[in-house]
Each structure stands twice: as C-alpha cells, then as structure tokens.
C-alpha cells in the first residue's frame, strides 16, 4: 500500500512537470541551431580552450621544479 502511494505521488509530480513543460515556448531546431552556431563562432576568439592561456596568466603553470640530489 505504501509503495502504491509513493508511486501515485511520483506520477502526480511527473504530470505536474509535464504540464509546466508543455507551456514553455518552443522554437524549431533549424532556427536555434543556426543561432547557437553563430554565437559559438563569434565567441571562438575568446575561448581559452581553443586559443590557449598566456603563460603569464596561467594559474596552473608549474612554478618551478624541485631537485633532490
């Protein structure tokens, strides 16, 4: 009985979520895909994964090596 109640509550939550999602505005992928592509291409010059990080501003650059003799 308790499991049936939990399942019923989960189904109610799922229905409520689907009601919210059906109200959200939709756009065709042909339009949004082009917008995303244009944005990514416009921002490519500022992307550190594509351009790299200057050595003097790289916080992960090794400071030096430690030598034990």
From TrEMBL:
Native source organism of the sequence: Dipodomys ordii (Ord's kangaroo rat)
Subunit structure and binding partners: G proteins are composed of 3 units; alpha, beta and gamma.
Record domain G protein gamma: where: 1-69
Skewed-composition ranges (Basic and acidic residues): 53-69
Region (Disordered): 47-69
Main location: membrane
Membrane disposition: Lipid-anchor
Family designation: Belongs to the G protein gamma family.
Biological processes per GO annotation: G protein-coupled receptor signaling pathway
Its biological purpose: Guanine nucleotide-binding proteins (G proteins) are involved as a modulator or transducer in various transmembrane signaling systems. The beta and gamma chains are required for the GTPase activity, for replacement of GDP by GTP, and for G protein-effector interaction.
Subcellular location: Cell membrane
PROSITE patterns: G_PROTEIN_GAMMA
Keywords, sorted A to Z: Cell membrane, Lipoprotein, Membrane, Methylation, Prenylation, Transducer
Pfam families to which the protein is assigned, alphabetical: G-gamma (PF00631)
Gene3D superfamilies, A to Z: Transducin (heterotrimeric G protein), gamma chain (4.10.260.10)
GO MF annotation: an example: GTPase activity
Transmembrane stretches, start-end: none
Protein name: Guanine nucleotide-binding protein subunit gamma
GO cellular component: heterotrimeric G-protein complex
Lineage: Eukaryota, Metazoa, Chordata, Craniata, Vertebrata
